[in-house]
Amino acid sequence: MIIELLMYGTLMCSGTTVEYEEPVPIVIEIDDSQYEAREAVRELSNNLRAEEIRIAEEKKRAEEEAARRTAEAERAASYSYSYDGGGSSSGEYGSSYFRKMGVINWNGWRWTWYSQRVLPGGGLNIPGRHVDDQGYVCDGSNRICLASSDLSYGTVVSTPFGKDGCVYDSGCSHGTLDVYVDW
Questions:
Q1: What is the pLDDT of residue 84?
Q2: pTM higher than 0.85, yes or no?
Q3: Structural domain harbouring 166
Q4: pLDDT for 86 beyond 50
C-alpha cells in the first residue's frame, strides 16, 4: 500500500529538524501487515495539521492585537487638545474623550474618573479647590486632584490631560489613578 501526504511546518526525525515553507509531498510505502505504521502516519498527519491551525490562530491574534493598539494610538492622537492656563502644555487626551471612554491606560496607570457631583468629597483637604475649564477639580496650583491607593497624599504626577495632578484621596484599585471631575 502507498500512502501519500503533504507535510506542513516542522519535521523532527533522529535529532534533525527540517522546516518547510511550502507543503512537501511525502510518499510512504507499507504492506497491509504494517497497520501500526499506518496509524502512526495518520496520527502524525493529524498532529501536524493541528499545529498548523494553532500557529495560524496565534498569528491572527497577534495581528489583531497590533491593529487594536494602532487604532487606540490613532484615536488618542485625534482627541488631543492644548491646555493653556498657568503655563502651556499639550495633553494627549481631552476631557470629552476621557468622559466618554471612562478609562484610559497611559504611562503604566489605569486612569478613571469620579465626579464630585456624585461624591462631593467635602472632607478632602484640597487647598484652593476649583473646577477648571475642562471640568477637572483642581487645587490652588492648578493641578488635577487625584485618588490613588499606590501613591502617598501630596504626590505630584504627570497626567495625560495637559497638566500635572496631585494625590488628595485614596480608595481606588491598585494601579489606578482616579481623576476628580465635575461632570
A1: 36
A2: no
A3: 93-181
A4: no
